[in-house]
Structures are given as structure tokens and as C-alpha cells.
Amino acid sequence: MGVADDAKNKAEELKGRGKEAAGDLTDNKDLKDEGRGDQGVAQGKQKVTEAADKVKGKVDDVKDKLTGN
Question: For 26-44, what is each residue's pLDDT tens digit?
Fold first, then answer.
């Protein structure tokens, strides 16, 4: 996890926002809904990435305590 995942998720979210905006401008409900869906998926992936980073940090803390670092 990390910066690359964060950037990828943000790009996916922005793509979804673009689709939503295009759907809104063209009165295309399907495109607008697809954009919202893309945003939701990207936000979900970001939450998973953040949770994984927190778990990794805790694991590293435990390793440091066990090895005396």
C-alpha cells in the first residue's frame, strides 16, 4: 500500500466525478450513475488501503517491541 495506491484511487475517483459531471451536463442518467459508482468503488478502495496501512503500522510496532528496537 502507499502513495501509488493513493494516487491510483484518487485518479479513479476523479474519473468518476468526470463521468458524473458529463452525465449531468448531457442529462445521461446512466453515465451519471456510473460516475457515482466509480467514485464509491474508489473511496472503498481508499478505505481498505488506509486500514491496511494502519494494520501494517501496528505489526511493525509489535515487531519493534519484540526485537527491542
Answer: 999 999 999 999 999 999 9
Contact call for residues 54 and 2 (beta carbons, < 8 A): no
DSSP for 29-59 reads: HHHHHHHHHHHHHHHHHHHHHHHHHHHHHHH
Q: Return the number of other C-beta atoms located less than 10 Å from residue 20's C-beta.
A: 19
Q: Using alpha carbons, list the distances in angstroms from residue 25 to 18, 29, 32.
A: 10, 10, 9
pTM flag (> 0.70): yes
Residue type (1 letter), 55: V
Return the residue matching grid coordinates 501496528: 58
